[in-house]
Give the backbone structure.
Amino acid sequence: MVVGVLALQGSFNEHIAALKRLGVKGVEVRKPEQLQNVSSLIIPGGESTTMAKLAELHNLFPALREFVQLGKPVWGTCAGLIFLANKATGQKTGGQELIGGLDCTVHRNFFGSQIQSFETELPIPQIVAKEGGPPSFRAVFIRAPAILDVGPDVEVLADIPLSAVETINSNHAIQKEEDSTESQKKVIVAVKQGNLLATAFHPELTADTRWHSYFLKMLPEIGEGTSAIISTSTTD
Ligand code: GLN
């Protein structure tokens, strides 16, 4: 069994290494015809406008959209989440092309620029229910997006209280609000909608493979109840 990893730009090598730690082969996908050789796809973090330009150059958008619409499992991390969203907003969103399919609005660079990148312990009850391990996940946010709203078929897997993020960009609209209840606000950072999984953070940059293991269980050839064949490492 092989998992495709979109390898136009960004952290595709890290995803392939994480899959390898679980005994699964990840193959680089750069051309439309290569999607025919894989039954699932990971879209890595990176820079979504660059990725979109490269996808356009390689004529990948029609094949990627078809892949999503056929119900094949696709997981987008960070820029990959933006790529999968039906709508992207926020600073520096210049009408970039999206694959779409994930019924949500994503705000690019929600937490600020590179220097406002951060790590946090994220409670992940649904993942723990399936994968075990510690109750939280050390989530790495790098120029990360956040999900501002979701459609009725979208399951929220993780959210983050804005008050927990010390390094939120001071320019951010929500922080400008005077109302103190605003600091209690949460934004969504991980979702599942049918065959689509999306995380605003980068599980491929940690040694904790629970998100990869969770994604593999979405694959029909693995499915639920086969955790014995996937050894989940939760060391960090
Ligand atoms: N901010 C980036 C973008 O808009 C995503 C960052 C990332 O993938 N780490 O594409």
